[in-house]
Write a structure and sequence with these properties.
single chain; 127 residues; mainly alpha; 3 helical TM bundles of succinate and fumarate reductases
Amino acid sequence: MADVNRGNRPLSPHLQVYRMPLAAITSILNRITGAGMTLASILIVWWFAAGAFGPEYFEFVDGLLTSILGHLVLIGSLAALWYHMLNSIRHLIWDTGRMMDVESVEKTSYIVFAGTVVLTVLTIIVI
């Protein structure tokens, strides 16, 4: 039997139509922040290694990391660290079988986002 309504349906749920669940967004961000922290750790190791190679090279690397772009990258890395840590705590709670209903998942997602902002700002103020 032929599908006569075939031309009126969308082929797939595109991002303009489909709203991703908050749990999917937090999962994707958790993976992105994990990769971002790896890149940030490479920058920090590069900074330490530059100190071992000599004062001229250290000044160059230190100048890059203390520039406006360098500060933005380091602040982003700090936010990624806080987000990844808070989301990992949430996953530890989930490993016990608690707070896995949709309402709790959404509530803890917002807590992770808010905690990331608050802890990032507090760390910047303290440092």
